[in-house]
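thread: overnight batch results

M.L. [08:02]
morning all. the overnight job finished for the chain we discussed friday. pasting input first so we're all looking at the same thing
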Amino acid sequence: MIMRRMAVLAATVAAMAGTVLTLPAAASASTAVATPYVNNPSQCQGGADPGWFCAYSGQNFTGQSIGMYDCANYLIPWTSKGSWDNEQTPGTRPWLYWANGATAWHMPAAASYQKTNVDWAPVASITNC
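M.L. [08:03]
and the structure it wrote out:
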């Protein structure tokens, strides 16, 4: 598992060569790589599969989705009202980082979700672990 994560991390770093990423002071080395894409994985269709954290551009787990399985910092590109579903290992609490640099929010532990009224506009990124 660690070797797989290191390979994913190395590939992501190589793909982002020249990209400057600024993280809040509370970020650690494990959150230093941002995944800047909407990936719409099958594991996020209609809610997150076990082991996954999924963010959705629409309410009730609809619209575009960003599936988060590997421990990383994932950029949130939306300004819509959306939703999220945390079905990671029980007790896992993601960190939500604000675009204005305010103190990060330690989100509720798995299993948890918010189906409506998630305002993505002020959100910069989420670290799922």
